[in-house]
């Protein structure tokens, strides 16, 4: 569906500012996104939208938009070049690097932020064509610890049914601002209002969510492992476990119970700074509720002991039997694997230079600079970045920038001239997410899971291309697929769905190199035959077929039934046509055990590596502050107008444009500063100046800066201005989780100096 441009017409699309991807209706005024409201027909968001997307035009028409491919010259300036030149030069240099150092020296990063995942599959084709092995994205600086634990426990991805839970627990998570589940604010308000329901929040800060909670366990920063261990200790020592659930649905619980029986609850409550009676009361409330659901996020995932915390958190709901019923936790279907870590990377378990653990196919973000800068024959020589801004979002930006400059080749695809683009050898301008076919693979619902394909509202801005076309141009130059195969498949596609289905799978069976290149092959063959110029959606044909084959029953229940390739065909047609989203699987709650990927369908609860860490907590260190750096800085809090770096123009923020440093009244008094005063924040890695906001929400010793600030964007006169602090000027890759390698963005030892 290309835009008709009829005045007053509401276009169906979605918000791209966080992983909820709420459905939106948008009215255009020329090329401006003029009026924006929640899409009432969207199956999950049902008309809900927060304040952020109302000003999405700052994304669509940002001053920093790219309109031509750029080449970096030896003096660091950029020259505009045409697409043919860009594709030819990049292909030639990629080929030379592959021939000299092997395809595994070409590293891929990104593949979509919060709303643009469709290009991942086309990127996988390019990786396969080059023989690239290593890949990563932002998940490897937040979710890989949790992914590792989920993998050990069940092999699935767990989430909660907050809307129907009697008790909800948020661990290092502030859904009032960060959302992450459908209609977060109305759901939170309903829970707070209902005397029969209870909210528990574990957060050092009195966040907007904590403000609504009955129990706020206001831990000292970085001490959640002691808090969670104490809660689990209470469960076992006060005999609050769901014994029947544990007996029927888990394996290895004896070892876990034995370790928890020894937890000194009072000592650990003191270690995390939470009143023991409050901790016990909150635990009893959680354990005795009919239904409970919980969510862990960055407050623990980017802090000390993060993988251990993920484990202890999941034990809380498993040992109390809060799984597999409405209002509890669940595992869910997926249309496709989100990490995108397959390609030829399958089998790589450790990074090539530093030997760090690869989880979900992703190199730990904290290792990337070392994988490039270390003098080692296996080091990474080239980097391809798409839809990410790692020179801003990863720990220690200065070192990441140094790593990018040390590469033999770096290519960045983005809509804007970002911090990462400004370190790259080539910059390729993409059409925005409102100018092309796009989709998100953040599809985490149960029992009805939803996928939405969005059509373009506008033609691509002059000079830009949708990513699938960019990948196709590079791949055509590389020529990884025999032309006769493409010709045969093109003819079959012209003939119709059935002919194409048999032809494609016959070709894939005859030649095992086809499947890893499926995105490209589908784009070149099926793509041109799709209605409404939906060529970029071609890869979803394969996705739909694989999803239908893997989840036959629940796809059939969603209305896509039949024999052979019929269910996949029906699902693909629905994806192409139902613009507010498609329920692609419909499950029964009893089906949830199908997603426990174990032969006995039980949770494997004993994880030896983490039980050892649990037993060692008594002697483990819980403070990393020093006389030089006496405060704990949370570098990257979600606020009302932050959305990673997706919108670069500070004018989109209605309040707190500069993103002040939040500090407790006690610390402010000691420094002799008040709200609005300017200070310097100093850490081991760097220093930055900022305004202060004295806040009752902060505990003494804890300071907090927002995420997504500190980008350099042109002002009305075209001069680049930096607004606010770039958090990763202050962070380090050195502090990291021992298992997942994830950074401690929420625990950066710091000091604050008052400025005159
Ligand atoms: N408005 C907005 N929403 C967003 C985003 C955005 O940029 N802006 N980004 C999206 C993305 S990518 C993500 S991953 C999610 C993240 O969503 P959240 O994880 O909810 O976001 P944060 O504000 O980073 O951190 C949550 C809480 O952790 C607390 N915290 C800090 N240190 C500790 C600690 O030691 N222990 C505990 N228990 N808590 C601690 C903070 O005080 C904060 O309230 O948000 C998504 N939603
Ligand atoms: N210190 C600190 N660092 C953090 C965090 C923190 O809390 N503290 N949070 C971390 C978290 S949880 C996350 S998820 C990461 C996020 O960091 P990144 O994954 O790097 O993502 P974004 O900042 O969202 O950048 C998305 C990029 O995609 C571009 N873009 C938008 N639309 C399109 C499109 O259609 N095509 C293409 N090709 N590009 C497009 C945007 O211009 C932007 O440059 O940041 C992390 N970094
Ligand atoms: S909750 Fe997230 S996806 Fe929904 S409208 Fe707000 S920013 Fe957009
Ligand atoms: Mo994130």
Automatic annotation (TrEMBL):
The lineage of its organism: Bacteria, Bacillati, Actinomycetota, Actinomycetes, Mycobacteriales. This is Molybdopterin-dependent oxidoreductase. The keyword Oxidoreductase applies. Residues 8-64 form the 4Fe-4S Mo/W bis-MGD-type domain. InterPro entries: Asp_de-COase-like_dom_sf (IPR009010), MoPterin_dinucl-bd_dom (IPR006657), Mopterin_OxRdtase (IPR006656), Mopterin_OxRdtase_4Fe-4S_dom (IPR006963), Mopterin_OxRdtase_prok_CS (IPR006655), Prok_molybdopt-oxidoreductase (IPR050123). Residues 705-737 are annotated as: Disordered. PROSITE patterns: 4FE4S_MOW_BIS_MGD (PS51669), MOLYBDOPTERIN_PROK_2 (PS00490). Pfam families: Molybdop_Fe4S4, Molybdopterin, Molydop_binding. It comes from Skermania pinensis. Keywords: 4Fe-4S, Iron, Iron-sulfur, Metal-binding, Oxidoreductase. PANTHER family: NADPH-FE(3+) OXIDOREDUCTASE SUBUNIT ALPHA, RESPIRATORY NITRATE REDUCTASE.
